[in-house]
Write a structure and sequence with these properties.
- Keywords: Glycosidase, Hydrolase.
- By secondary structure, the chain is an alpha+beta fold.
- The chain folds into five domains: 95 residues, Galactose-binding domain-like (Jelly Rolls, Sandwich), CATH 2.60.120; 128 residues; 298 residues, Glycosidases (TIM Barrel, Alpha-Beta Barrel); 104 residues, Sandwich (Immunoglobulin-like), CATH 2.60.40.10; 87 residues, Immunoglobulins (Immunoglobulin-like, Sandwich), CATH 2.60.40.10.
- Helix content is 14%, strand content 33%.
- The protein is globular.
- The N and C termini lie far apart (74 Å).
Length: 735
């Protein structure tokens, strides 16, 4: 046991620091004094025998009416509390049974119209965890006779068992410490044969942690033909955030360290939080409480970005670190004046130890009572755990790729992100830049970690061929970066409020030069991931669902959109129209979506463009979205054979107001083919990039003869020399 406390009511611990003796200890380190020393990290452990005891000399006769024991995993199945006036003759005060396991368990009772049958089956559907389904006890009863368990010691069989020690008979043996556990597959079942027809109207299941997300109670007279009696759903209601009564779809990213060396240049935090706002994010998760910078919270307050704040536990937990909860309470008091904070989370991808969890819950309830506390960042009313590597972007809309088999409030999803060539050259420094080498490995390029960069590189190569230089690879990577990040958020958009309530990238902010899990890079330059994310997170948005190509309008605002129009046009790579444009009027309620038509693929078109527009009732453009649609990945290689095109830019003078410098440029495609994924970059007279810069559009496509007006802004404090220049480069730019 970790601790033994004796008290009267809510009074002090009378056993603290007193003399303790025991029947024995497993070693000199784990003696009985550890249970009363006030240190939650020390414990008494007996010899490996039954009938062990620990006793405390309280120093004098005192009044008490309670004993509190914090058990380690090796707890007593039963014990007696005894008292004595002389330490020799003891009187029993209370007998305690721990026959019921102290671990994870939950009892579920389901009633239904009275049935008379010989056989009963629990037919599970999907699993709630990555394990199979597991139950400590299955009881079948008639409510009029609640003490009679018809399933007790009955004949039982199941679809499977994960071991010889967890067979189905363990669920009906009357021992609450044994359990049936199936193989790690959906669709498992357990059935009971009562030997003769029996009448019942209630089933009670004591689930282990691996419970069934849904199941059907069935009955049969012959054990062959089954009749459904009741369908049961154990689906959890996902976290849904409302601010002032308005539902907020949480879209954002995980924020780790502000900076690798823990020092942040002036204004950098404000700049990077503003970049999150520019991506249309509504939330930042302060992962593991990694940042304690007041400037981060202040910037989130100013930018209207909600903060999910973790405490600091992850991995292996100490049962009750001294002072931990007190420090957590101090932290809550320090930051609670920030209106941006909406969640306090106990631990990353795990549950805090019970004492810590209870302490954190109470600390939040006391110090920040209007704010939600949840114990686990990836379980319960939220989910997580990736994927963290590249997957086919068309699969993000399939909830089966997620551990929880649902969209929900998903706290971590991401993939490798190779940024623009200039930033990558800063990453490699004086080392050879191509092919990827050890210096890349030093910056997270790993085939054995969760990022699995080999699948990312294979996806780029499959689409556009193997690259012969860093410049070529970084340019090609932006197609995959953009397409994949847009697809993540569009998958959640498509299921908005059905079971999709939030999505947070792993990660959004880099603390150092990296090749993975970022939207902008350490230089604060933007790339395809940034603008794919920004597109998928638009407050008013038009998108097409992969696979079906059903177009839908998305409204993340608080105002209904009425009389809007959705239009789809298809073009080949020379900018020629493929078929007749499609158009439909749509009304979209506030914080909702509205489906429109499907966009069929032209016969034999190969790689082509699908251009979507959403306009309001006055014809004003609200959203546009360009898809490069292909079947097999190699169809994208048509871009390698596409004729070269020339882009012209016409840039006005710099305007300065309110601490920001702004310039407007017009980009025009002067060629006779499409300009693929045009990247804009603002530079000063020396050719240096102006960073950070905010573009109201970037990484876009232009048809032949089409032009785009783009506004670019940056902090006026930057040292920008001479006249700024805006460069425009398409994948198929000439020269």
């Amino acid at each position: 046991m970790w601790s033994l406390s004796v008290a009267e009511g809510d009074g002090p611990d009378l056993a603290r620091g007193k003399a303790a003796t025991a029947s024995g200890s497993e070693n000199d380190t784990n003696g009985p004094g550890n249970a009363v020393d006030g240190d939650p990290t020390t414990r008494w452990a007996s010899k490996y025998e039954d009938d062990q005891y620990i006793q405390v000399d309280l120093g004098a006769a005192v009044d008490f009416d309670r004993v509190t024991i914090v058990w380690e995993q090796a707890y007593a199945l039963d014990y007696r509390v005894q008292v004595s006036t002389d330490g020799e003759s003891f009187t029993d005060v209370k007998s305690v049974s721990n026959e019921t396991p102290l671990g994870s368990r939950a009892t579920q009772v389901e009633t239904f119209p009275e049935q008379t049958a010989r056989h009963l089956r629990i037919q599970a559907g999907t699993r709630a965890t990555s394990w199979g389904v597991s139950m400590w006890t299955l009881s079948v009863q008639r409510q009029a006779e609640p003490d009679v368990d018809l399933a007790l010691h009955a004949s039982v069989q199941a679809s499977s068992a994960d071991s010889d020690s967890t067979g189905p008979e363990q669920a009906v043996d009357g021992n609450p410490r044994t359990r049936w556990a199936s193989k790690a597959e959906d669709g498992q079942w357990i059935q009971v044969d009562f030997a003769q027809p029996a009448t019942f109207d209630q089933v009670a299941i004591v689930w282990e942690q691996a419970y069934a997300r849904d199941f059907v109670i069935q009955v049969s007279d012959d054990g062959q033909r089954w009749t459904d009696v009741k369908s049961v759903s154990n689906k959890i209601t996902e976290l849904k955030i409302n601010v002032n009564g308005v539902p907020v779809f949480a879209r954002g990213g995980n924020w780790g360290w502000d900076e690798l060396l823990r020092r942040v240049l002036p204004d950098r935090l404000a700049d990077t939080v503003e970049m999150h706002r520019d991506m249309n994010f509504t939330m930042i998760r302060n992962w593991l409480g990694s940042s304690n910078r007041e400037e981060l919270y202040q910037a989130c307050d100013e930018q209207g970005i909600l903060v999910w704040n973790d405490f600091w536990q992850a991995g292996q937990f100490l049962p009750n670190p001294p002072g931990y909860v007190d420090i957590a309470a101090d932290t809550i008091r320090r930051y609670r004046h920030h209106p941006s904070i909406v969640v306090w989370c106990g631990a990353n991808e795990g549950d805090p130890p019970p004492i810590v969890d209870a302490g954190l819950k109470q600390a939040v309830a006391t110090e920040h009572p209007e704010i939600l506390y949840i114990p686990n960042s990836a379980s319960g009313i939220v989910s997580g755990r990736g994927p963290y590597h590249w997957v086919d972007p068309a699969t993000y809309v399939d909830n089966k790729i997620y551990e929880a088999d649902s969209f929900g409030f998903h706290t971590e999803i991401g993939m490798p992100v190779v940024s623009v060539v200039e930033s990558m050259r800063n990453l490699v420094g004086d080392e050879p830049e191509w092919p990827p080498s050890v210096v890349w490995n030093h910056h997270d390029w790993s085939t054995v970690g969760n990022q699995r960069v080999d699948t990312y590189q294979e996806a780029i190569d499959a689409r556009l061929g193997e690259s012969g230089s860093l410049d070529e690879f970084a340019t090609r990577a932006q197609f995959v970066n953009y397409e994949s990040h847009r697809a993540m958020f569009e998958a959640w958009n498509a299921n908005l409020w059905q079971d999709a309530t939030g999505l947070l990238l792993w990660m959004s902010h880099p603390a150092w030069h990296s090749t993975v899990w970022q939207t902008y890079d350490y230089d604060l330059d933007v790339n395809g991931a940034y603008f794919g994310t920004r597109k998928g997170c638009e407050p008013l948005h038009v998108q097409a669902d992969p696979g079906t190509w059903r177009v839908r309008a998305v409204n993340h605002t608080t105002t209904a959109l009425t009389g809007a129009t959705v239009t789809a046009r298809r073009y080949d790579l020379r900018g020629r129209s493929l078929g007749t444009p499609q158009s439909q009027r749509v009304d979209v309620a506030a914080s909702a979506t509205s489906a429109a038509f499907t966009v069929p693929a032209p016969d034999g078109a190969g790689l082509h463009l699908v251009l979507l527009e959403l306009r309001d009732s006055r014809g004003r453009l609200l959203s546009e979205n360009t898809y490069w649609r292909y079947g097999a990945a190699e169809e994208m290689r048509a871009l390698n054979d596409l004729g070269r095109t020339r882009l012209s830019t016409e840039t006005g003078g710099v305007r300065t107001s309110g601490g920001r410098a702004t310039v407007t440029t017009t980009v025009r495609n002067e060629g006779d083919t499409v300009a693929a994924l045009v990247r804009l970059s603002v530079r000063d007279s020396r050719g240096d990039r102006v960073l950070p810069a905010r573009y109201d559009e970037n990484y876009f496509w232009l048809l032949p003869g089409e032009s785009r007006l783009v506004e670019i802004a940056w902090p006026a404090r930057l040292d920008v020399r001479g006249r700024v220049q805006v460069s425009a480069r398409a994948y198929n730019s000439a020269g």
